Amino acid sequence: MRPVTFHPMTLRRHLLRHKIADLPQLKRVLGTSVDLTVFRKLQPLGYLTSYSHRGRFYTLREIARFDALGLWSHQSVWFSRYGSLVDTVEALGRSSSHGYYAQELADVLHVEVQEPLRHLVQQHRLNRSLLGGRFLYTATDPTLRQQQILTRRRAQHLPVAVQSEALELSPEELQAAIRLFYELLDEQQRRLFAGMESLRLGHGGDRRLAEFLGLDPHTVARGREQLLEQEVNLGRIRRSGGGRAPAEKKTPR
């Protein structure tokens, strides 16, 4: 009796249609009850295992459309060009210009990362440094690690509204962008923007915003007070009495 032949194209057609599938589904499609048979047929197709859902789902590399971080999802199931969750966490930690805090990585990857981070630090594949009361995970290379820490420290002096650890931008690029935006505002809007950011920053916010935007700290304080007191002139740019005195209109002789 001839042995049953299973063709890998059967799996490929199913995955191209449904994008992802778990092992029970693939066994039914292939018509086998043996796990190893499925993996043997997936191997030449170039398959990926999800790093979320405990690696329960599979797709093909040709299907995945990875984003800038090398991630792709379908129906809330996440895949990575780097493979496993551990390898993905390591790759992001090494390639980031500013390193990652654990919660930032969890937000980016949509899964818990404490265990992979502990594993990577123990194996000296990532470094862990205490910064601002939290552990920052960076590359193990001393030069790259110092640059990541320096970039992070500089970024933490930016106003809260323009901080984004998910953006691969330098502090200089962020500062240039926010200053350009600031120049487009009128006098009252500038004052209110500075006051709002000062409130976000808390203690020392007036001074930090004044240095960042090139303002007098009293101007930042005035904007903060206006917001707290809800003293905003919606129809005016300047306060009453502000600006030049109106010129007297003379009748030509």
Helicity range:
40-55%
CATH architecture title of the largest domain = Orthogonal Bundle
By CATH reckoning, the class of the largest domain would read Mainly Alpha
Q: For the largest sheet, list the strands in their spatial order.
A: 1-3-2
- The radius of gyration is 28 Å
Features:
47% helix, 253 residues, 11 helices, Arc Repressor Mutant, subunit A, 3-stranded antiparallel sheet, mainly alpha
Can you walk through the features of this model?
- The longest helix is centred in the last third of the chain and has 15 residues, at 187-201.
- The chain has three domains: 8-64; 84-156, Arc Repressor Mutant, subunit A; 169-234, no CATH class.
- It is 47% helix and 11% strand.
- It is built from eleven helices and eight strands.
- It has 253 residues and is mostly helical.
- The strands form three sheets. A three-stranded antiparallel β-sheet has the order 1-3-2. It has a three-stranded antiparallel β-sheet with strand order 6-8-7, with helices on both faces. A two-stranded antiparallel sheet has the order 4-5.
- The chain has helices at residues 8-18, 23-30, 35-42, 85-95, 102-109, 114-122, 142-155, 171-183, 187-201, 205-213, 217-229, and strands at residues 21-22, 47-49, 57-60, 71-74, 77-80, 100-101, 127-131, 134-138.
- The termini are far apart.
- Residues 162-166 have low confidence and may be disordered.
- Helix 9 crosses helix 11 (217-229).
- The chain is elongated.
